[in-house]
Design goal:
This protein has 196 residues and is of the alpha/beta class. The chain has two domains: 109 residues, Rossmann fold; 72 residues, no CATH class. It is built from ten helices and five strands; from the N terminus they run βαβαααααββαααβα. The longest helix has 27 residues.
Length: 196
């Protein structure tokens, strides 16, 4: 089984690429953002630690939590030091379960911060979804109604194209049609698995 990390900047189209993969291959796909939500639900060790740090009323209110963390780099780092390790443990547990399932051939994890969180040492391959900057801006303005200022701010906080490329084993150019991107994936995966 191949453990593959998928990363890329905001608006690069990671979700659409993963929908195709999920539909056509015998695989498990995990989105780190969704896992991060799961691991901090009430009753988890992560939730308890966050409550100790921020207070239960803040942890239970996403807008209050965002407000408390905004501009506070030190507090944000503490929160990330609680959530990121919990996400990693969750994913590694799921990977072990997937390895025992004969119907699963590929295991994918998607996140914008895979490289920064040290997943290069965990995955077999790291894939970078590259998309031309102007295409990303247009997508974010139309699909999420982000302002140009918000897009610029998010992009500035993420790794550069060069850093993504230097840390990844395979690059999918998602600047064109989804069909073109899917053809790149088919070609890459044809030696690993069978299409459904």
């Amino acid at each position: 089984m191949k453990f593959i990390g998928i990363t890329g900047g905001v608006g690069s189209g990671k979700s659409e690429v993963l929908k195709f993969i999920k539909k056509h291959y015998k695989c498990k796909v995990f989105m780190a953002d969704k896992v991060a939500f799961e691991v901090r639900l009430p009753g988890t060790e992560c939730h308890k630690q966050l409550c100790d740090l921020l207070g239960e009323e803040v942890v239970g209110n996403s807008s209050a939590m965002a407000e408390k963390l905004f501009g506070n780099e030190e507090l944000l780092a503490k929160v990330n030091n609680i959530i990121h390790p919990a996400v990693r443990v969750y994913l590694l547990n799921e990977y072990e379960k997937a390895k025992a399932d004969p119907d699963i051939e590929l295991f994918f994890v998607e996140a914008a911060l895979l490289i920064e969180c040290g997943y290069k040492e965990v995955v077999d391959e790291m894939w970078y979804i590259y998309t031309d900057t102007q295409v990303r801006i247009q997508r974010l303005m139309s699909s999420r109604a982000y302002s140009p200022e918000k897009i610029e701010s998010i992009m500035a906080s993420q790794l550069s194209e060069e850093e993504f490329r230097n840390n990844c084993d395979f690059v999918i150019d998602n600047s064109g049609s989804l069909f073109e991107s899917c053809e790149q994936i088919r070609h890459k995966l044809e030696g690993y698995t069978w299409l459904r």
